[in-house]
Structure formats: structure tokens, C-alpha cells
Design goal:
81% of the residues lie in helices and 0% in strands. The chain is mainly α. It has one domain. α3 crosses α6. The two termini are 40 Å apart.
Length: 188
């Protein structure tokens, strides 16, 4: 089976080796990493909702077998929209929960440094509530760095250099600059 390293060393054999390459997880993860590196912030919403759309269409096709085409299309469309919305909502809930956990963790770790005593329960509660509301906004702003970092990690794994911190850092910075330049005029 071909590896990404072999592919990069022999570009003249790309077409002949394509069927084998599509079966190699390193190549697929490397391509996914390259996409995340340059366009991850723009494709984030699609990546969240696409599995829901696919699942909705598959369920719609399974439940309407034997029906006429119009009924099948309507069922697939409705279920795809519902499933995409469910995944979108689940993603928003997960980000809010992560924000709460991060804020509580920061308050719990930071209180002894500031006051010399553990944080009282009401401070942790307030930090959790603040995290729920402010972390999702911060997360959206940081997505321009998070997406290239994920892409860089994917590309490093695909080339067998997942421990190379300089490569991952360099690709993350390059991807961040590319996304800032390419997508600076687009509004999310």
C-alpha cells in the first residue's frame, strides 16, 4: 500500500497509484488536514452539519422504500434538515458546556493564586455561567487558529512526523496566515 511519503517522492506515478491511495488512511487524513489547514474556518459549519444531512437522507430512503419519488424526496429533505439542525444544536451545546468547564477550571486553579484559598462554590458557579455565555464567542474567533492546528496535526500524522513540534507549529502558523488572508473579507 502506498504511503504519502512515497507519493510525494514519485509525483509521476500519481494517476496509476490513485486506487491504492484512496484506501490508505494516511493519504485521506493528509488531504483532510490540507483542507482544514487552508479552509477549516470556512468549512466548519459544513463539517458539523454534513453528517446529519447524510444520516437524514439515509433514514429517509430507508423508511420510504417503495413510495413514489416525490414522497421519497420530501422525506429525505425534511429528515436531512432536521438531522442537520440537531447536530448544529448539539455542537452549540457542547461548546457552551466546554466554556463552562474551562471557566470553572480557570477559577478553581486561579483562586488559590489570587486569594490564597480555594474558590467558594458561588464563585465557581458564577464562573461557569460566565463561561457558558462568553466562551462560544471566543471559540468562533479562535477557530481561525484551531482549524489550522487540527489540519497541521492531521498532516503531521499522515507523514509519520506527529512528534515534530516545529512542523506542527509552522503548519499551524502558515494555515492561520492563509486563512486570514483568504477569508478576511468573508463574514461568519
Amino acid at each position: 500500500m502506498s504511503t504519502l511519503r512515497d507519493l510525494l517522492q514519485h509525483p509521476d506515478q500519481w494517476v496509476a497509484r490513485l486506487p491504492g491511495l484512496l484506501q490508505d488512511p494516511h493519504v485521506l487524513v493528509g488531504v483532510l488536514g490540507a483542507i482544514m489547514l487552508v479552509a477549516g474556518k470556512r468549512l466548519y459549519g459544513l463539517a458539523i452539519m454534513a453528517p446529519g444531512v447524510a444520516a437524514g437522507v439515509m433514514v429517509g430512503l430507508a423508511f420510504t422504500e417503495g413510495q413514489d419519488l416525490t414522497m421519497r424526496l420530501m422525506a429525505c429533505g425534511a429528515l436531512a434538515i432536521i438531522a442537520a439542525y440537531v447536530l448544529y444544536s448539539a455542537e452549540r451545546l457542547a461548546i457552551a458546556a466546554a466554556g463552562s468547564f474551562v471557566a470553572v477550571g480557570l477559577a478553581r486553579a486561579g483562586a488559590p493564586l489570587v486569594t490564597g484559598a480555594p474558590a467558594p462554590w458561588y464563585v465557581l458557579l458564577a464562573a461557569g455561567i460566565v463561561g457558558i455565555f462568553f466562551f462560544p464567542r471566543l471559540y468562533r474567533k479562535l477557530l481561525v487558529v484551531i482549524a489550522p492546528a487540527i489540519g497541521a496535526l492531521c498532516m503531521a500524522w499522515a507523514t509519520g512526523r506527529e512528534g515534530d513540534l516545529a512542523l506542527v507549529t509552522g503548519l499551524t502558523l502558515l494555515g492561520t496566515v492563509i486563512q486570514l488572508v483568504l477569508w478576511s473579507g468573508h463574514r461568519d
